[in-house]
Write a structure and sequence with these properties.
By secondary structure, the protein is α+β, with helices and mostly antiparallel strands. The termini are close together. The protein contains one helix and three strands; from the N terminus they run βββα. A hairpin with a 5-residue loop joins β1 and β2 (about 20).
């Protein structure tokens, strides 16, 4: 799989941790205790979402 550049929105949660979403890839939602952990999880979720689009022959938003 090729690498892609994906805009990620990260917000710090009041309780603990961070939440990552992306307007470019609907369905991407990742939460972690640290920023690094959140971005790592977001990368994994994005990879799996894109693989799912390809496997099911669905139109992949932008990619």
């Amino acid at each position: 799989m090729n690498e892609i550049l994906l805009a990620i929105n990260v917000e710090e949660l009041d309780e603990v941790g961070f939440l990552a979403t992306s307007e470019e890839l609907p369905g991407l939602l990742a939460q972690g205790r640290t920023l690094a952990e959140t971005l790592e999880i977001a990368q994994d979720v994005a990879r799996k979402l894109l693989e799912s689009y390809r496997e099911h022959g669905d139109n992949c938003p932008r990619y």
